[in-house]
Amino acid sequence: VDETRVGRTLGKIREQAVLRRRRGDDLLRGLEHDEFTPWYQPQFDARTGDLAGVEAVARWRHPERGLLPPSEFLETAEELGVLADLDRRILARALADRASDVMAGGTPPRISINLSAQSLREARFADQISAAGLPRGALALEIVDAPDEAARWSLDLLEDLGVELEIDDFGAGPVS
Length: 176
Hints:
176 residues; six-stranded mixed beta sheet; alpha/beta
C-alpha cells in the first residue's frame, strides 16, 4: 500500500467534507438572514405573445458571492433537510409580491413556483396557500420530484384550492 497515495486520498476526502460543511453552514446562515428571494422569469402565451404569467425561481443573494442560481444551493438544502423551508419562503415572498401588485391596481399574472415534493408533506404549506385566498388558476406549482404517498394527499387539497399542478422534469432525463 502506497502510504503517500492513501494520505492524499484521505486529505481530499477531509477537504471535501470541510467544504460541504462550510456550504451547509453558509446556507443555514443565508436562511437565517433571509437572503433567498424569488427571481421572476416571464412566461408568454405561444399563440398571442401576451404575458401569461411569471415563474418564481429561487435565487440566493449571497453577501460575498452575489446572486446565485438554484444549482449552487438546492443539493445542499436537500442534504440539510431545509428544502421545504426554502420553498415556503419563496412562496411567501411570491405571494406577497403578487398582493402588492394587486394593491397597486395591477392584475398580476399567474405565478408558477418550483416546488420539492418534500414541501407537500407539510400541512403548513397547503395552509399557507389557502390563507392567501387566491383566485383559481392564479398559482401553479411545478413539482420537481415525484411525490411519495405521504405527499399525495396535499395534491388533492391543492387542486381543490384551484392551484394548477405541473410536473417539472426539465433536464431530469427520461421518466421511468
